[in-house]
Write a structure and sequence with these properties.
The chain is an alpha/beta fold. It is built from 13 helices and 20 strands. The strands form 6 sheets. Strands 2-1-3-4-5 form a 5-stranded parallel beta sheet, sandwiched between helices. It is found in: Cytoplasm.
């Protein structure tokens, strides 16, 4: 009797993904293309024939983390392909790890796949090889996701046209390159059909979406849509799921999407989540000019007031830098005054740290490290008080939440005000009793709060 021929194992790739959500999307696209071409994705160095490390290189701590990850992969496996933001500084990687097989920059999917092919040729399958391979952009529409099943990042563009003096992202990711609006909307539609309940719109500058394409119109669902932020938001609002905007540069036309945040669809769902992630960075005009950021602080406060008039429950998240070169005591106090008046819901802050290649490194009058840390502590103490008070004001309200996980008797969820990984949580005390599952929407009566999180229960009907 003829024995069946044993099928040889598929080539195996290990993968390490570091950095921000934009880098995570790059990882998803590479992993999708690997899967399309027949590679097995494995979770350990020992099982892998080659390892891909997607790096971050924005700040010194991220560079160190990336180099450590490359070093670990080299020590444990020995065959390593490097990509991502740190790949734009090849000499730094080569100096630390001269034996890596290949180095490429961010979103350079073709170079990564070429390096994988060289190190580990794809397995020949006469049936599969007759099928044309998809380009990675096409594969990404239905590809592998590294997030939980119920939410996903939706990257709408690459690169940035700004030249903020503290930032080196344009030197790593290049100028703005927007994805055509129909491509983005088709991907979003497929994600929604596949069970995604929340889309997190990301880019380097979401507000600038489409400017490089001159807002070209494309067709989706039988009508024309401009490649523009407002039109994109209107299209995404038709999907009946949560859409959350990140990395929104404070252009005037941001005002145009606020009314959409106040509207509800026929199912009671907000057409666009009342959430705006908008990095103001500072509040003193001189410091903002040195940062090469918009500096009309009074206008910013007026816009925030107007946004809240149109959409009273809007959540505003922002980031700030304290101790920027030349920042005086008075200018820092102005930043605290802004924080007090703006009453922002969610705030992150960083003590200024020089980044290799950033223009701000050459500015005079650096702030001493001890003083930077003192200012950062004062800033965060004030914001903690503001955050605590704003969350306390929600006690007694009912909040629509999305369940992320079940932990014993608790359901861990997020409200419309909470982005995953960076904001707070809603702990639903009777979540298990209520039979909740990850990916479900539920209305929660808020019974308590602290500096970061809310606590509540599902309100059962009598």
């Amino acid at each position: 009797m003829t024995q069946p021929i044993a099928k040889s194992a598929s080539p195996r790739v290990g993968f390490v993904s570091l950095g921000c959500p934009k880098a995570l999307v790059d990882s998803e696209r590479i992993l999708t293309q690997l899967k399309v071409e027949g590679y097995d994705l494995v979770p350990s160095y020992d099982d892998a024939d080659v390892v891909v490390v997607n790096t971050c290189g924005f700040i010194d701590s991220a560079v160190a983390e990336s180099l450590d990850a490359i070093g670990e992969a080299m020590a444990e496996n020995g065959k390593v392909i490097v990509t991502g933001c740190l790949g734009k500084r090849e000499e730094v990687i080569r100096e630390a790890h001269p034996g890596v097989l290949s180095i490429s920059g961010p979103q350079d999917y073709a170079s990564v796949m070429s390096a994988v092919h060289s190190a580990l040729p794809p397995k020949h399958d006469p049936f599969v090889d007759l099928v044309p391979r998809r380009h990675s952009d096409e594969a990404a529409d239905v590809g592998i996701k590294l997030t939980p099943k119920h939410y996903a990042y939706l990257k709408i563009s690459e690169g940035c046209n700004h030249r903020c003096s503290f930032c080196i992202i344009p030197s790593m990711r290049g100028d703005l390159v927007s994805r055509p609006v129909d491509q983005v909307l088709r991907e979003a539609e497929k994600l929604a059909m596949g069970g995604v309940r929340e889309l997190l719109v990301i880019s380097q500058d979401t507000s600038a979406y489409g400017v490089d394409l001159r807002y070209a119109e494309r067709e989706w669902r039988g009508r024309a849509w401009q490649t523009r932020m407002k039109a994109l938001c209107e299209g995404l609002s038709e999907l009946g799921i949560w859409t959350r905007l990140h990395y929104v540069y404070p252009y005037p036309h941001v005002d145009d999407v606020i009314p959409l945040m106040a509207e509800t669809g026929p199912d009671g769902m907000r057409r666009l989540l009342p959430y705006l992630d908008i990095p103001f960075q500072h509040a003193n005009p001189r410091i903002l000019k040195l940062m090469k950021r918009p500096g009309a602080v009074d206008r910013t406060l007026e816009r925030i007031r107007r946004w809240r008039e149109i959409c009273p429950d809007i959540t505003i998240r922002s980031t700030f830098i304290v101790g920027f070169p030349g920042e005086t005591d008075g200018e820092f106090e102005q930043l605290l005054d802004f924080l007090e008046e703006a009453q922002l819901d969610r705030v992150g802050a960083f003590a200024y740290s020089p980044v290799e290649g950033a223009a701000a490194n050459g500015l005079p009058d650096p702030v001493p490290e001890e003083l930077k840390q003192e200012r950062l502590a004062r800033f965060m103490e004030l914001q903690a008080d503001i955050s605590t008070a704003r969350l306390e004001a929600k006690v007694g309200t009912v909040q629509r939440c999305l369940v992320d996980a079940i932990d014993g008797e608790l359901a861990i969820a997020r409200s419309m005000a909470d982005a995953p990984e960076i904001d707070g949580l809603v702990q639903i005390q009777n979540g298990f009793e209520a039979g909740l599952k990850p990916g479900e929407f539920v209305d929660v009566e808020i019974l308590g709060s602290d500096e970061h999180d809310l606590y509540g229960e599902v309100a059962f009907d009598d």
